Design the sequence.
């Protein structure tokens, strides 16, 4: 999932400004495969263990010594819509833990902060990412 210029982003109910992108990636941390005696190709594949990572990139317009702390867990929420109107607007939420904070400075991009998270499932079975259609709801991210 790639969200360019999300309308709203917050972590621990604190709004984050100047966010340029939110990326949600999924990767298998364990892959199970099986082949049959009939040939060399995989007959069965499964990903019983998965990791969902979230990367939030934002422009920094001023000196910033208060970067988010590693290991902090909370609700990360952002809203997006394919156009500037509320049609097809979605709210995405996840309980997430900060795993990395990095900074980059360049003449082309200016100062950029990237915060990386691992999304945490409520029970280990449920998808840690919740997407809700909020097209008809007035207001922002819940």
Sequence:
């Amino acid at each position: 999932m790639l969200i360019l210029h999300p309308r709203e982003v917050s972590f621990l109910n604190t709004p984050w400004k100047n966010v340029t992108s939110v990326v949600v990636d999924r990767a298998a941390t364990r892959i199970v495969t099986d082949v049959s005696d009939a040939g060399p190709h995989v007959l069965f594949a499964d990903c019983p263990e998965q990791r969902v990572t979230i990367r939030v990139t934002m422009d920094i317009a001023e000196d910033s010594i208060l970067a988010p702390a590693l290991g902090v867990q909370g609700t990360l929420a952002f809203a997006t819509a394919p156009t500037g109107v509320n049609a097809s607007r979605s709210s995405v939420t996840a309980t997430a833990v900060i795993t990395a904070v990095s900074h980059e400075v360049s003449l082309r991009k200016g100062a950029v902060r990237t915060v990386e998270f691992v999304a945490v499932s409520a029970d280990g079975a449920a998808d840690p990412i919740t997407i809700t259609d909020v097209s008809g709801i007035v207001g922002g991210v819940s």
Remarks:
- The mean pLDDT is 87.
- Residues 35 and 42 are 5 Å apart (CA to CA).
- The beta strands are 2-4, 8-11, 14-15, 19-35, 42-60, 73-80, 90-106, 110-120, 129-133.
